[in-house]
Amino acid sequence: MVKINNSKIREKKYDPFIEATLQYERAAKTLDLEPWIYNRLKFPEKELTVHMTITLDNGEVETYTGYRVQHSTLRGPGKGGIRYSPDASLSECKALAAWMTWKCAVLDLPLGGAKGAVICNPPDMSESELEKLTKEYTYAIKEIIGPQKDIPAPDVWTNAQTMAWICDAYSRYIGHFEPAVVTGKPLEIGGSQGRSGATGLGMYYSLLETSKHLEYPLEGKRVGIIGYGNVGSSIARLLYDYGCKIIAITDIYGGIFNKNGIKIPELDNYVVKTKSVKGFNKYHSITNEELLEINCDILLPCAIEGMIHSKNASKIKAKIICEGANGPTTTEADEILGDKHVFMIPDILANAGGVTVSYLEWVQDVQRLFYAEDEVKNRCWQMMQRAFWDVVRISDQYKTNMRNAAYILAVKRVANSVRMFGKIGRN
Ligand code: NAD
């Protein structure tokens, strides 16, 4: 029997692209952008929808839908992850692609913004089904990706192995090995030292700079984390080693709370076996909503977008929010948190360590010249530090919060490029 899972192709009530557009519009208004530039940057350059049919291990045939969106390739090749999720949608990809444009511009990287997704549920799929689907997806988007066009990377439920499969399928298509087509690859095939924990490392650097800026020592501070995957677990380890107290963590299956602090190295061993934090050490269990309301100093949303919204923002007690996830806070929630004087390190700054080290991986692949881990970390630190203080300066200059400041900085940089290229001949 032919089974097509396109019942899952739906837009959620929460529309991430509307959120992304509202953030962009606020900055565009502050900068008084010319209408032709404003419109050009409001919409993605390209949106591709593809369908992949594969034979499952049980012999049944399944068709999956995927997307690749390029928001802007003006300042360099598109850059952005590929997400596997049953809830993926075109609107989500459009938002994530736009956020990538602004993130790369905040860091002043010579890259644009893109994002991809496949609607599927990896925990229900075997390794060989995931490999088939990934290679079919690569084949479906092969004309629009490439080292000088658009360079994918891992995101939710994709990892270094997924990138290796993409690299293989793309290399076969063009007829030679091309590692620079994706970042976040295994070291054996051109990956960079330091890439796997880079997003958490970038968050850590931005928290260290925030600590200096606010004169707020991080030692002993209580931390809550939503999402314990690549991003959530890497920042947890760094803050634990620094001397913070990680008191609550949730993931998609459940959550744990211990007011005296969770032992992160032991938790990591447990998660390797169980794939979830749920049930660790018989700690008190906790939901996402409960985590948002606990008495903590620093909140780290590291799961998916839209989790902090108008109905729960007023209950948040944290003094600092550092956004590991892309778009975890809606614009309404952002205003509520601003009124409560929560210091927000916005996603397009806070989680930019990942794309920064991805940029360094791409540079290394293109040159076939590889850096030691210390060099990668050092460069990442310098770039994150520069971006942090650039945003603080704009925030002081425009008397606005860190999110608006990051958008003003990013939109100004990209708009300047559009202006230099001129009105005629593109789009
Ligand atoms: P991941 O798949 O490794 O981990 C995601 C985590 O979030 C898992 O622990 C999962 O259980 C949890 N989660 C998912 N839905 C949840 C829900 N409804 N409630 C609670 N927990 C939930 O993904 P990741 O790579 O860590 O990415 C997490 C976020 O960080 C995403 O928004 C992604 O776009 C963003 N991000 C990732 C990178 C990167 O380098 N991987 C870079 C920048 C931003």
TrEMBL record:
Domain Glutamate/phenylalanine/leucine/valine/L-tryptophan dehydrogenase C-terminal: 192-422
Chain sites annotated for binding substrate: 79, 103, 358
Pfam families reported for this sequence: ELFV_dehydrog, ELFV_dehydrog_N
CDD domains: NAD_bind_1_Glu_DH
Family per record: Belongs to the Glu/Leu/Phe/Val dehydrogenases family.
Residues that, per the record, bind NAD(+): 199, 230
SMART domains: ELFV_dehydrog (SM00839)
Lineage: Bacteria, Bacteria division TA06
Record site: Important for catalysis: 155
Keywords: NAD, Nucleotide-binding, Oxidoreductase
Active site: 115
Designated name of the protein: Glutamate dehydrogenase
GO molecular function, one term: glutamate dehydrogenase (NAD+) activity
A single GO BP: L-glutamate catabolic process
Gene3D superfamilies per the UniProt record, alphabetical: Leucine Dehydrogenase, chain A, domain 1 (3.40.50.10860), NAD(P)-binding Rossmann-like Domain (3.40.50.720)
